[in-house]
Amino acid sequence: MGNSYAGQLKSTRFEEVLHSSIEASLRSSSLAPRPVFSQLYLEAEQQLSALEAGRRGDNEEEEEEGDGGLEPSSPPTPFQTQPAPPGCCTADGFCQAGKDLRLASISSEHLDVPAGFVLVGAKAPSLPDHLLVCAVDRRFLPDDSGHSALLGFSGNCVGCGKRGFSYFTEFSSHINLKLSTQPKKQKHLKYYLVRSAQGTLAKGPSICWRGSELRSRLTSAATCSGPLLQPLDSSGPPATSASEPGPGANASAPTGPQAGLASDHPSLTAASTAVSNARESPKHVQLLNNSLSAPPGPSALGSILPNSGPPKKRHKGWSPESPSATDGGHAQGGGSRATCEGACVSSCVPQASLAGPASATFPAAAPGEPVSVPDNLLRICRAKPVIFKGHGNFPYLCGNLSDVVVSPLLHACYQNSQPVSRAHEQSGLPSALPLSEETQLLLTVYYLVQLGADQVPQMEDLERIFVRSWHESHLTETRQYQPALPPLVPVPPVTSAQLPWLAGLAASSCDDSVRIIECAHSLAEGLSQMFRLLVEGQLAQTNYVVIICACRSAALDSCIAVTGKYQARILSESLLSPAEYQQEVDHELAAGKVGALGAFFSTLCPEGDIDVLLDRFYQEHQDRASSSPAASSGPVPASADVHQPPACTARSPWPQPARPFQLAVAQKLLSHVCSIADSSTQNLDLGSFEKVDFLICTPPSEVAFQQTLWHVRHSGVLLELGLAQEQVSRRRAERYVLKLDAAAQAKAQAFLQSAFENPQTLFVLIHDHAHWDLVSAAHDLCPASAAPRGLVHSLLTCRELREAPNVLVLHVTAFPYALQTQRSLISPYNEVHWPASYHGEVDLYHDEKYFGLAEFIDSTLAGHSLPLLRYDSTFEAMVTALGKRFPRLHSAVLRTCALVQHYAAALMAARGLAHMKSHTSVETLEIAQSLLSSAQRGRCGHGLMVLLRVPCPPLAAVAFERLCHVRERLALERHFEIVLGDPGSGIAVGQHFARRLQTWQKIDDAEWRPQTYLELEGLPCILIASGMGLCGASLPRSLRYCDLRLISASCWERTALEQELGLAAHFVSNQVAPEKGAAGETPESDPGKLSSTDNEDEEVGAEGAALRGESTAGPTAAAHAPPPGSPAPPEKTRRRAGRGLQPAPRPDSRLGTSQASVSASATSSSGPSSTVPTAGASALQAPPCPVAEACRQPPVVFLPKLVYDLVTSTDSSGLPKAASLLPAHSVTWTSSFRPLPSKTMTSTEQSLYYRQWTVPRPSHVDYGNRSEGHMGSFHPRRLLLSGPPQVGKTGAYLQFLSILSRMLVRLTEVDVYDEEEINTHLREESDWQYVQLGDPWPDLELFKKMPFDYIIHDPKYEDASIICSHLRSVKSEDREAARKAEDPRVRRQTARMRLSKYAAYDTYHHCGQCRQYMGFHPRYQLYESSLHAFAFSYSALGEEVRLHFIIPKSKEHHFVFSQPGGQLESMRLPLVSDKSHAHIKSPTFTPSTGRHEHGLFNLYHAMDGASHLHVLVVKEHEMAVYQKCWPNHIVLVLPRSFNSTGVGAAHFLIKELSYHNLELERSRQEELGVQPQDIWPFVVISDDSCVMWNVVDVDGAGERSRERSVSLKHVLQHIEAAPDVTQYALIGVRKWSSKTQPGAAREPFSRCHVHDFVVLNVDLTQNVQYNQNRFTCDDVDFNLRVHSSGLLLCRFNRFSVMKKQIAVGGHRAFPITSTVTDNPVAVVPAQYICAPDSKHTFLAAPAQLLLEKFLRYHSHRFFPLSLKKYNHPVLSVDCYLNLGPQISVCYVSSRPHSSNVSCPDVEFSGLLLYLCDAFVGASFLKKFHFLKGATLCVICQDRSSLRQTVVRLELEDEWQFRLRDEFQTANAQEDRPLFFLTGRHI
């Protein structure tokens, strides 16, 4: 391009006609197939022009030569520039008008740029260090994606302002470029210029000229294939191994862990790099991946579009905005065109004689015969060819098989792409044919054609291409996460005859990078031909050979051979298993092959061997030391030899309290555990556990083990759980941490045995770093010397552990992907994900921010600063060159030796040997200088840590020994330490550094040595981390550089990638923002570092220069920034999918690194005499401590180029490439027919995505979990905690253990009322006492002689009126002050008690023992119950009572039905003579309201498993909620009219129902010969808050010995076994109190009131009724009625009942509010009554409740004379109403033959007549005496009854009444208020 020349347009037209002709000939058939290359925009004019026009149009080789190529393929074209006009300036860097154009001179000036123009930088050969500023029309420059620019030129001079330069030749003369070759804008316009934050003009990204660096083989295939062929940035099915055959894969073929996944396509945000070509001089590759990220468009196989790219010459009326330019060239074409290097069209068309005849020395193989691999193939080709089996049969290979690699991955990829049609049919869509084999192979060719020279094919990309092609060909619907696709016309498939021609035509655009070989008979023929071409050197420029055998009479046979040296090496190494990789490296080290590499390094240094230089330096240093001891080691680090260096004030101690986000995670874990316990599955009964025990399993890493051990010791969790006392010793803590090594089996078995022996303890098994060792024990293929594998499978998934009901398993990991499969044992509901920085509008991170992988990636988008994530192109170029020279050495060996060589040279350069800078990279030199200078910068002596990751342990040992040797020869032993981090061993540091650590950490133990990496904080050191995995070890905050240049670039799976990058995860303090960026420490960096080696413009000169590691000079801005022309996407589009790629908090943008601006001339000023850089001579004050600075900035990370491209690249939707990788090597994708993950996925959505689309391999621990996706496949007590690496998960789960223990203690305890009995000093005194203190049951005759105690002693009636008897009067001072009425702040006294095993529980209790009791009966379905009506008549109600029973199927045996499922007749009752201990004879009735969840209705444990009949008595409006909570309980539903009644109505109906049922049972069993008196007459009426029962053991003398908990079964069976038990009407027990006096239980039985838990004889009490209208004190009223009827009440004093404090329901369910106001408000008790016919506000409450409440608080208004006059009580006839604690009452019954108090001499202060019946007469009242002025209160149902009562009882004779003394309750007439009349005694 550039200036026009003749013949260009003509050649272009000729080429188009040629291709159209070829297409027409290929497509001529009856099916009339459509053209394939409708969107292809070939760059073929470069090819034909070279043949027809003498290479006038091809100047690419010329460009390479001009840029320093070593071996030019053709001489440069001479060019004579026109002489400058006389008088014009000809100085370099100035225009002809004499104006300065150099960027360094005019960067701060304001430049006038016309609209549509941009400023660019031009390079002049005479000024290599400067850029010339030019203004160029943007239409003649390529766009951001490298699309074709408008040909020609239009520019202005920014110096003199001259405009209108239409030819670049003219413009180059004006700006004095002084060129010797033809001027070309592609060659000299190199960079865009941008304004920095300071407003100065600076160099920006490179101009993305297509083909300007190396032949870009990517774009031509992209346009050839169109959007159909674009890789979808996703991972396909992984490689299947021999033990894990995948679908359609050859199970016998050896494969590796993710073979073929060696590289990825960088998107527009990925940087380009400099790599060495296979044969020629190293060239930079510009990756124009526009096609990889273009939006989806029509299929290349689906439509014919015109060639709509920009014209070859400028035409009038055409502009870049025209539809032909934008739509055709970009959207439809999908990318720019590629340049072919002088290859003619005929050479690209496959023919039978394409490769020439087979030579006699290498005969072609006949069909069916094996193919011989030639000898010395590796030596000849310098790489092992990798052959991928394709379609059909693959021939046998023989001969030199060690020099070739065969893989079935491609065949498996083809097979995995076939099930997409079946998945399509399963989704309910019409059936569609899968892709044909010919189409698959043709798409494969298109994919290979578009790959760049530094790219490696990935099976995932190819599989996604197949799926995308199938989608576009057959689907019109859109699926989830997929972009909308336009409708397409069905495309006819490619035939076998067309395939070779179409493949050859596609390969014709890639300059022989892809070679097509067509076979006539079999693949053996093509393989033999390929081997011959390899031996003859004809495939030196070919990266891929596609062999096709498409016979018309047979199926398609194909294979693909990777022959490119770079691609073949990566692919062949990626096919190795970990064991094979280890074995190969060990073999190369043992065979001494590394020695040859070292010898070669020695030849690269012109000054001599590095070891010789080291020895020379060491000798010189020794000589200086002997002459001047003070200068022995140069500047010694601060405090290096001081015993007590000054402390660093900015450094906080390592032990830190729990952070808010850790507490939040602990609470989330606890919430999930409670959800498991509360679920209906009842898999965890938290209430049955008394304490917590735990065991933490760590990987077999000594450092990780010691780190966890330290956390356990210092977190206080052992003290919190009661597992240790005070000081926690190390030996004590080791009991709770298990290292999964060979000795773990015994400790794990002891843990399981302890769990089995202690069912009351909840054991928590924590599997830390849970993604490690997920290999099944049956698939442990690791060598015997390695760490044992499969321990997780054998220990953590064993049957004993899974079935243990008291073991909770918690998996903790930063990479949960392998645990989220279709066969996962962990339910998705049991996953806990790390919270974001803001949780519930609360900032969890306060003054620090987490800097993770996403933040590192975001730093690469900052154009004004150096990114924290970088790669070293100098090192990459050196490794590439070494790979060509040493093809038999593994890349890991080459990279390790090369990097160690770089470190050695960098340390030597930092030590003063300045000439060694040319033998290392700028990045390595920065690391070495920062390491050596860090300890000099502060008085405390702290330094920085450098992490050098060497995955292979043998290579790590080699690196450790070599670096130690270099350090020793450079006399740096006291400057920094080198630590070998081997997972199998501890940390070893020198005594000098150990003493410094002891001083910093204030440790007095002289034998102390660091055991964790965290204890190395502040120590200047190089940590060489070895092992295939770091196993969860945390790194200190002083980590400054994370060197990951040696990590495997061929292991493409998400877990491994994020695990390596997670080493740099860091908490950054945001209290003080750093003034400089992460890499901006000028004193620490090389003063000459103006540029980076990652220069996109300059080329590495020669292979020797690359091997020497020399850096090329160039600007800095393009060092590690995004690739030229790549726009930085907005921040929100960079959000990474998944935990590893999704930041927790957002870091401060100020944490980025700033660019160092140091003069380039400083490089030459460094001399051999320079020493270790200091903290800066110009500093006037002490610089800050390095650790303090490290706390405010994250470390810098160096990656391999391939890994860098993968991490930083995204697809068109913004999804990171790493997020779509295979999640782990132990899992595989279920299908290619899967959506791409979304970048907006949450952690939960990501988990569900992996659970749907991944399955474990046969070697995975979850492989045997066959119930895919069903709830039954999940282990119910297994949880997963996932969070980013280095975020504090250990502290979070230790906090979880603490709060779990506290919760269990709280669950096993309950608040019970603990109140001493009241009115004990008022107890009736009698001469007679029960003297038989040791009797278990009362003697009936003796008991009848005991007097009845009228005094109420229950503490809940502390505010009730005292009941007086004739035996003793009450003094006013004896009555203690009662608590204030209705004061919610005054709480009754309670005590916290631990629940016994005989406790009653509410609905929140779940355990395996009471599972069936709660409704999980094996014979009946849940909630299977029936509703039955039961009616009986009661004269007092005046109507028939109709009740309803809800009876579960499992409880129907307790009832009698007329027929199965028929009418309910009665409830079965046992016989009195029944002595069985297997069941309880008395039915238990529990009335309840408002406590469906909190009522203690679970009596399974209380009954000790005995059979019993339990009936819940509820109101009709609460029936549904009670039935839902208690599906297996019998529910008695009260009539609707009882919805507004109190507990008295429930007791009334229970008693009447029981008596009616007793009569029915007597009638039924009398027919069976049973006597009526033999039917058991007792029922139990229990409160819904009775929780536990106790018994007091006494000796024979009645002395109390101890109190213990017993079951309700024991209490009831003891009472039921009492002799003459049917003679007792009411039996109860004592209320428990811890304040009970020792002698209180001395008397075993009492004849007194009984409450809350009573055994009622319904036969004896048939004529005594509960008052159905009562809300309070109904039990006291009933007790008095029973006693006055002459019946016996007995209380067993040695039994006591505990009542739980329940804050909801009960009597609180009756609020009293007004009915008038819109917002009901509470009213005071004084407003509960009013005058009849008044305008008083009516209240929404029952009349009886209003009456009882009013009398409780304001009875003194009716009985003023009775206030505090306990000797003159109020006479209450036939009822007991609470008149308040300051008024006493005397109860009398009007029934004949009643037992009443004898009080002939008592003068009563008042008379209370409540609903008196006919038994109360005038003569009865005349027996009593009243004080003068005593008051009367008559209460009736209505006003007429009130007057009739006054007349009938002749009250007007002795009582005076007034009209104003008539009152009523303040409720409406429809609510039937009560009326009462007061009067005074005359």
Write the layout of secondary structure elements.
Layout: H1 8-27, H2 45-52, H3 60-66, H4 103-106, E1 117-124, E2 127-137, E3 155-156, H5 168-174, H6 185-188, E4 189-195, E5 201-206, H7 219-225, E6 273-275, E7 283-285, H8 290-293, H9 323-332, H10 345-348, E8 371-373, H11 377-381, E9 386-389, E10 397-399, E11 405-407, H12 409-416, H13 420-426, H14 437-449, H15 459-474, H16 498-507, E12 514-518, H17 523-536, E13 544-549, E14 557-562, H18 565-574, H19 578-590, H20 593-604, H21 610-627, H22 660-678, E15 691-698, H23 702-714, H24 717-720, H25 730-733, E16 737-739, H26 744-757, E17 761-768, H27 791-796, H28 799-803, E18 807-813, E19 831-833, E20 848-851, H29 853-859, E21 869-871, H30 873-885, H31 891-910, H32 922-934, E22 945-949, H33 953-969, E23 977-981, H34 991-1001, E24 1021-1025, E25 1039-1043, H35 1054-1061, E26 1066-1069, H36 1103-1108, H37 1162-1165, H38 1186-1190, E27 1196-1199, H39 1201-1208, E28 1227-1229, H40 1243-1253, E29 1254-1256, E30 1278-1282, H41 1289-1307, E31 1309-1313, H42 1340-1344, E32 1390-1394, E33 1425-1434, E34 1439-1448, E35 1455-1457, E36 1464-1467, E37 1484-1487, E38 1510-1514, ...
Parallel strand pairs: 8-10, 9-11, 12-13, 15-16, 15-17, 17-18, 18-30, 19-30, 21-27, 22-24, 22-25, 23-24, 25-27, 37-38, 37-40, 38-39, 43-46, 50-51, 50-52, 52-53
Antiparallel strand pairs: 1-2, 1-4, 2-3, 4-5, 6-7, 9-14, 13-14, 20-26, 28-29, 31-32, 33-34, 34-39, 35-36, 40-45, 41-42, 41-46, 43-45, 44-46, 47-49, 48-54, 53-55, 54-55
